[in-house]
Amino acid sequence: MLMVVVALSSCAHALPYQSSGITPPSFWSRITHSATQSYVDLNSIVITNENAQVEQYWWKHFDDPTLDELIKEAVQNNKNLGVARARVVEARSNLGFAKASQMPEIDGDVNPSRGFSSGGIEKKPIGIVDAQVQATWDIDIFGRNLPQLSQVKEILQYQDASEQAVLVGLLAELGRDYFDLRNYQQQIDITSKNLGLQKKTLDLIKAQQRGAMASDFDVERASAQVSTTESKLPQLRSAYQLMLNQINVLLGELPGTKDDFIEVRQILKPLDQQIIVAAPATVLANRPDVKAAERNFAASISNRQHAFKQFFPDISLLSYYGVERSNSLTATPWSVGLDIVEPLIDFGRIKSQLNAADAEGQEAFLSYQETVLEAMEDMENDLTNYKNEMVRNGSLKNSVEQNRKAADLAQQQFKSGFIGLLDLLVAQSNVLAAESDLADSDTALRKDLVNIYTASGGGWSV
Is residue 129 part of a domain? Predict the structure, then answer.
């Protein structure tokens, strides 16, 4: 009988995978159905492959040594990730405690003493030793405690998946921040370059003014354009510094610590024109937040089972063995018995706990379903953004080329007197706007890719 009880106490397993009740489609709707008409073949940009696996080391696709090193340092030193790891250690310790609680509890007690004998005429000191061993074991014949042990295992799995989700989010945030930082660098360069051209134009206007070929109005208008462009630089530099601070903190460092390394210019490599994404079912099975929500739901099921088992008797095995020894007496008292506790009248306490567990289970199930739906939404949104940004990026490249040609022609025609100053200033302003928009679009494409990899659950296995 005891061997059977031991086996029961040690065979509690976490519940298997629980279905959300939501069947994912076999394809991503925003890939196969696109109403956008353009010269870009959208269906060749993003391809769903049912055999494709989620890309875990997604940052390698950007071929950027600085980003690689930042990712490495963040995984090692980020404080939020450290908190998540500590929670996993705590949950694992709780599991060890729960397993140990299923085993017998054995306590020993030894009380040596010395005193006087009360018998006879002559009193003399004697030694007395009282030693005892007590054992208590909740033998759990009805399996009252097994759901609780299963719940602790599921909570450990939940914390493990939650740590993975924190890691995925950390890498995504670092990747997006890094590309934003490079964009601010490029925007500062673009603005400074165009500011230099505008200052040359202003100098030309001032020279023409001295020769009575330009008015004070022309000078003021050109000066206003220079001042407007100059006003963009402080804001860009501020955004750049803020992003530097944020990246340092993500690396677990004080702001400014890694600036010398981060600020080294890197030429961003051209992106691959085509990406392959995993099928929806693969993505859902891989995303840590979905796994965490599923394990939370499984833990609520075990909690409900534990609440139901409280209707059954609680049986404990009690044993005692002692030794009492003095100079003239030795005794060995012992006892073995059972302690049976059966709830008779609890005024609805157990029923209330069961109802609460049912409500918690419903809440966990709905939260699980919502996480699945949001995971699908994330992926569809990111695919939509990437495809449309790819179209926008192609148009902006044409715009930059066309505006540069227009600005060159405007400069030549202005010097020859064929157009006025306003036309030249507009052409120069259009170049700045087009180049700035293209830089923003290039960054948006990289961030969209990061979001797609993240929405797929990439990065948790590192």
Answer: no
Give the whole-angstrom CA distance, residue 266 versus residue 179.
11
Does the predicted TM-score (pTM) go above 0.90?
Answer: no
Are 250 and 174 in contact, with CB atoms under 8 Å apart?
yes
Answer yes or no: is 325 within a domain.
Answer: no
The band of 37, judged by pLDDT with boundaries at 50, 70 and 90, is very low
Q: State the Cα–Cα distance between residues 126 and 279, nearest whole angstrom.
A: 83
Asked if the model's pLDDT at residue 292 lies above 50, the reply is yes
What whole-number distance in Å separates Cα of residue 127 and Cα of residue 386? 87
Query: In this structure, what CATH number is given to the domain that contains residue 240?
Result: 1.20.1600.10
User: What are the tens digits of pLDDT across the range 246-266?
Assistant: 999 999 999 999 999 999 988
Closest CA to 164 of 283, 72, 15, 287: 287
How many structural domains compose the chain?
1
Range of the domain at 363: 18-104+143-311+350-455
Output the 3-class SS for 205-231.
Answer: HHHHHHCCCCCHHHHHHHHHHHHHHHH
Q: Look at residue 32 and tell me if it is in a domain.
A: yes
124-153 average pLDDT score: 72
In a domain? residue 131:
no
Residue 400 belongs to what H/E stretch? helix 349-416
pLDDT tens sequence across 318-327: 676 666 676 6
